[in-house]
Write a structure and sequence with these properties.
Largest sheet: 2 strands, antiparallel
CATH topology of the largest domain: Rna Polymerase Sigma Factor, Chain: A
Order of helices and strands: HHHHEEHHHH
Keywords: DNA-binding, Sigma factor, Transcription, Transcription regulation
Number of strands: 2
InterPro entries: RNA_pol_sigma-70-like (IPR039425), RNA_pol_sigma-70_dom (IPR014284), RNA_pol_sigma70_r2 (IPR007627), RNA_pol_sigma70_r4_t2 (IPR013249), RNA_pol_sigma_r2 (IPR013325), RNA_pol_sigma_r3/r4-like (IPR013324), WH-like_DNA-bd_sf (IPR036388)
Structural class: mainly alpha
Helix content: 55-70%
Organism: Aureibaculum algae
Distance between the termini: 75 Å
Strand order of the largest sheet: 1-2
CATH class of the largest domain: Mainly Alpha
GO molecular function: DNA binding; sigma factor activity
Shape: elongated
Protein name: Sigma-70 family RNA polymerase sigma factor
Number of domains: 2
CATH architecture of the largest domain: Orthogonal Bundle
Strand content: under 5%
């Protein structure tokens, strides 16, 4: 590129010329106004520090966007790193006497009732087993071989002397009957 075609930097005009564009670019990727403003500010600061390395091959705006993209990537790397996660604060009260925040990794987890889940899973399994046991013999056998014991289609067809299309018709019908049984006995509760 000849010297007369090279671009130059005008840092005194960056805020006026590019801040809105850079902010709009950032906010669509970060979705947090304050963080987007900070990243644009960091971009300008980094650009000032790197100005001596600017070769003028790209326009000023293109060069700033390249720096901004790296800042956005750095932002996501930070929040996805263990250290970054520890630094993210979660507000639990915005104002008043109880104003405060938690570090994200130390936010109290929701209390869940494991015993209740276990009972519900046991009941669900019981209803499902009952529905499977009420399938016609051939449907139950094919369904169990394919979906419970994970036999290959070819193995089941050879064992039961049926075609692959017959197998899939049986599985489709078995699933349809299971769905109806589960709707009647579990979801209708």
């Amino acid at each position: 590129m000849s010297d007369e075609n090279k671009h130059s930097l005008e840092p005194n005009n960056w805020v006026k010329e590019y801040s809105d564009y850079l902010y709009n670019y950032t906010i669509t990727r970060i979705d947090n106004h304050e963080q987007a403003k900070d990243i644009v500010q960091e971009t300008f600061f980094s650009a000032l520090k790197a100005a001596k390395n600017y070769r003028g091959q790209a326009s000023e705006r293109t060069w700033l966007i390249a720096i901004l993209k790296r800042k956005i990537i750095d932002h996501y790397r930070k929040i996805n790193s263990r250290k970054g996660k520890a630094e993210i604060k979660v507000n639990f009260h915005e104002d008043g006497d109880k104003k405060g925040s938690w570090l994200e990794e130390r936010v109290p987890q929701l209390w869940d009732n494991e015993a209740e889940k276990q009972i519900e899973n046991t009941e669900l399994k019981s209803v499902l087993d009952n529905c499977i046991n009420n399938l016609p013999d051939k449907y139950r056998l094919v369904f169990n071989l394919k979906n419970v014991e994970h036999y290959e289609t070819e193995e089941i067809c050879n064992e039961l002397d049926i075609t692959a299309s017959n197998l899939w018709v049986i599985i489709h019908r078995a699933r349809h009957q299971l769905r109806k049984c589960m709707e009647d006995n579990w979801f209708a509760k």
